[in-house]
Amino acid sequence: MLTISIPSHLLRHRRATEICQCIFIFFWSADEPLDLSKLPAFLVEVLATVLLLLNIFHEIMGRGYIVQDDVEGYLSKLCEQKADPVTGLLIGQSSTQRDFVVMAIRTPQKEESAAAARNSVDKEWVTEHARQVSRMLPGGLSVVGVFIITDADAKDALTTLRQLLFAVENLISSEHLWDPADDDVTDCVTLHINPKTRKTVCRTFDIKDPKSVAKPADWKYQSGLCSSWATVSCSLNVDMLLPLPNNRTSTGNMEECLKEGLKAWAHQIESGLCLIDGKRLPEDSELTVGQRRNVRQTYTAQLLITTENKRLTDVIEQCGGSVSVTGAIHSRAYLHSNKPKARLAEKLLKRDVVSTVATRVQMMLEELLASDQESKGSCRDKQQKELFCLPHRIFCPLKVSGPLCVCDYQFSDEGLSEVTERLKEMLDIDAAEEDLDTRQEMTFEITGCDITPEPTQEKVEAPEHKKNYIGVAMATAVALLATAASMLYLNDI
Amino acid sequence: MVVVDSETATVLRVKGLLEFRCQLDSTDEQLVRNVISRTFETLRSQVKSESCVLAVSDSPVIIWPNKDAYATPEEITPSTLCEDMHQWIQADEQESSGKKSSKKKSKKSSVASVINLRLMTEVTKPGPLSAPILTKTVLKSHFVSVTLPLDCVVCTGRSDTIKEYVFYTKHLLIEALTHQLCEMEKVTLQNMKGMTLLVPEPVHFLLPEPKGLVTVVYPVGVPDSQLVAQRKELHQQFELPDDRPYFRRANAYHFPNEPYKDGYLRNPHLALTHPTLDNGKVYLVQGIYSYHHYMQDRVDDNGWGCAYRSLQTICSWFQQQGYVELPVPTHKEIQQALVDVGDKQASFVGSRQWIGSIEVQAVLSHLLGLTSKILFVSQGAELASKGRELANHFLTEGTPVMIGGGVLAHTILGVAWSETTGQIRYLILDPHYTGAEDLQVITDKGWCGWKGPDFWDQTAYYNLCLPQRPKVI
User: Fold this and answer.
1) Could you tell me the pLDDT band of residue A54, with boundaries at 50, 70 and 90?
2) Who's near B114: CB < 8 A, 6+ residues apart?
3) Does B82 participate in catalysis according to the annotation?
4) Which of B65, B93, B215, B463 is deepest in the core (most CB within 10 A)?
5) Which chain A residues are Cβ-neighbours of B46 within 8 angstroms?
6) CB burial of residue A452 (10 Å; 0-12, 13-18, 19+)
7) pTM higher than 0.90 for the full model?
């Protein structure tokens, strides 16, 4: 029995999906393999040819990025500035189904740089900015690419962009406490805009492959992109107790211990069971099944973990002390509106859980290292015991309509003005203190987490296959070839 | 210990690992015990809290026992019968012991089905929230980091609905879990010496009716020989005879859905239907043995090793009843034992020479410290008159019997004997089988089966080796 499964990247092309659906409505369903033995032989040949054409087509066309139209205005304004080159980051979400860009952020000016230096790209500065920005993005949003506005030669610009992209992505992924998943998208985008002609060149690179070459990509603006994105969130308890080694107990040592402990905890979270709105959804099911599109959706997640590693021997060891992290965090992840899968929601939320805790611990350690004796928010109980309040998370909505927010971490001795300053400097966002959402943490109100464990009575509607006749299928097969050919030549998808 | 009546239908078994971590500020014994107790108390309140979750293995059902909540697929509602719920639990591959029908008929079958649950912790919860605090304590001290292997069993009756199941889990399993944590605390504190700590480990034992399944917490790493006092207490508590072991680690109950790791068949005779004789009774081997036969363990002993295999079966019985810790000896080890006692020349080791009942008795004595009785029959036809003796043996000792004579050796696992008519049948385990561990083949083809008196060579003489149980606990 012959079966094929249609590669998911081909399904991203809307027209291709519709055409396939026309022909194979008898037997085809989006996630099942197609049983070729039920079709007459010549139709199989037609199918093979079609797929070959589509594949070639896809190779030529590459990825398509759908961009929030505010970004166009932002980039335009940057073009009008005197500075050249202007670099920056592109923020969005890449999935196997779609690529979205929701925000562009220019690299902040380095104050001490000399005038001459302003005309060149400081790779370390760009990557450091990217690292900071990455900490301020909730789950689902990440640095998906870099842009440059310069009237330099396109080839030079692309080379610079390539260097920046790899440096940025490598730094960000090196800080991750999780292992990359098989279904992670490793393509990232570079955008080169000529400020005078406003010509835009968009390319993608596969950052998993150091020898990757530029592939063409589509860059399309759209309004109201994020209005119906889904939000999955939860509040999660952290309770870690780790021994400090017996020799020195400097901050450096504490960092080692915490990193190890966080890695083990991250592994627990990653392998934990995830319930969304009280239900355990099958992996390949869609998150938004049964919901109307274009309606804002919020989901509450629950995470159940177990201990995996048995420890039955050497259970008491000497130590130089201990370090514990206890408390709760608010975690959230955003999902694009194009039929996101439950598996993606789970992955993005878990990653946000891990990174928000790791980020705060890292920030606290950086503070301790910087300020030697007296640290922010510490209170000395006895000679040996110190308590540090980790910064808590504040959300700031993006001006685009929709649920998207960025976040920042506020130490207990900081005011909201410092938060808004950072949002301006790092993310180029003008936010007022009233806009900030400080209620998710450090509050005793019930926050936006409604856990409803009772099974709901919603019925799941199974997609229905329309039955049709082979005659019609044959006719549309011919139509397909014609359309495929036209797709190639007219470049219209 | 949780005592569970094994006659009822379903056993719920919860397994899970709980992390036990604490810092010991000082080495003062009392303070250390206080810290340990406090940490156990924290774990107990965790089990009783709303973040304790039980997930039914191999099914999509999740239960929060401490609040009225569960997550199930939409088809299951609170009034679904638990029997219907069983279809959601994937049927495990049954390990090859026993056709299901005969297991249900036999009264000795203890549990019809076991539902496994995993203990999990929910880390998410609704507010109120307080942002995390990092506490750093600098002090030369000790750190305790253990994972406690929790393992509780609870019996429930049949035909309960999901709602009743939830009730049971709410009360019985949570009680069982907290009780087990108390037991673990006791065992841990009992076995603390200075700065060493032994991990407590629960073991289940199936006691004779009506006591059923019992769970005992033992310290990991302490051999049975050092736990005699505990076992004496247990025997007293459960009013068990003090001449045979019930609580050695080897006596641990083997749950029906757990496969045996070594691959040998256990008790293939349970798959048979026993003969009914006029006024006759069936007397069988007691306990568990593994079936040893030709060609196993990559030893080609076809044609010469039958007595060795019968001996191995007997050794496996003593090992699994907890009398010995020695693993089943290989052919070479058996031969070496005979050389060591002076019964054979050194050249015997590695040869393909046969052994008989006398050698079997010698090896059981030398390697395992066991005594055995020898029964002699001058003619195979006389064996039929030994019904009473064999019946008595299986009643009192219950050990497998090795019989050698003519050119063959076999294992007798039981007799069906009528006192009035003198009719007799023998339950034979044949070591001459050369095939794979296929219960179907072994029972169908009679490699383990009931034989009549004509099974024996009527003119040859036979020696029987009847191993005796040591009177120990």
Assistant:
1) low
2) B10, B11, B12, B13, B255, B256, B257
3) no
4) B65
5) none
6) exposed
7) no
